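Minutes, project huddle
Topic: does the predicted pose make sense with zinc ion bound?
PN asked that the exact inputs be recorded in the minutes so nobody has to dig through chat later. Recorded below.
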Amino acid sequence: MIQDIFPYRLDHAFRDREPEPEDCFFSFRGGEVLLRVSENGSRRIPVFHDLGMPFAEVRRLAVFLFCMDGVTVYLLRQQGDVLPEREGMQYLPLRELDGILPGWAYFAGATALHLAGWYERNVYCGRCGGVRTQDRGRRSLSCPDCGDTVYPAIAPVVMVAVTDGDRLLMTKYGDRPLPQWVLVSGFVEAGETLEEAAEREVYEETGIRIRGLKYFGSQPWGFSGSVIAGYTAELDGSDQLHIDTGELSAAAWQPQAGERSVIIGGGLGIPPLLELSKRIPGEAEVFLGYADAPFMDGDFRGHGRKVHVASQTGNGGFRGTVLELVETIAPFADRVYACGPRQMLQAVAEWAERQGIPVQVSMEERMACGMPRWRS
Ligand SMILES: [Zn+2]
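Predicted holo structure (tokens), as shared on screen:
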């Protein structure tokens, strides 16, 4: 989970401390974070010294956030404006830096983004319109005019893994650009327990009842200003799903780990996949990409596989690349097998990595010897 950054440790304790030139800082532009980008392309959290800004100005704009393994981390707030990019520094979308930044830096960024949003929304007092000031010794903002005090807002979310035997209930959002399958989740209502929220969310979104609700664990999720409480539960009664189309685009009972594969083939990479498709156990969905007329797709269907076809001409169904088709359908998979041109394999490997699915690819070039060699 995002907070698993051992041996690093995020120390949340608030400190009244003046910034120093070597302290780290975060600055945001929407969901983008300002990072120091070196000539070799590596990225790191900047320190104040990198800014080349008068230090009196830094002191005026910096807000203490937390310490990470003894390193003090600040937020740099440019009131009503965004700190401009400067040489060697660039704004990058934080969500896309998972796996690129070290885990501790990604977690620190998500937590900083959460706090940055709270500070931004609380510049003015919601009661009288006065300008709030930072309290000493604690993370709170007070209004000097009416005395109103606010603390960081954290919205609790529940997430539930519902099982029925060896099947797991998975859903896809309808209102967000998130193509992958996810567990049922939702915000907790005022006056509701976490357990009640879990039961309500599962019922509202998918129309089923649950029993045996058990707490699993939690994780902070700064991107939505949340803390997520995870639960497991079993199906109680009918497994018939009734989807809330206002929130979801799909819900389905999916086989649990290790049982479902996706096979992706392009051009001359398709023939060697047929034997693989016959041999692998469990369910497998097949995606085939062609320049023009499809071939062998019937052979895959012949042994009971569900087959999707893409071609550059639209011949056979989808017009576009096989990966565009995969991204459109967003299949549920525990494992991906792919064979085809190098460029396609590169794109498939990147897609699978984003989805967190293990992938095995085989290069067309290696096929010449008649011995396809699989590699992860
Ligand atoms: Zn006020």
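Observations noted during the meeting:
- Residues 363 and 369 are 12 Å apart (CA to CA).
- The longest helix spans residues 103-121.
No decisions taken; revisit at the next huddle.
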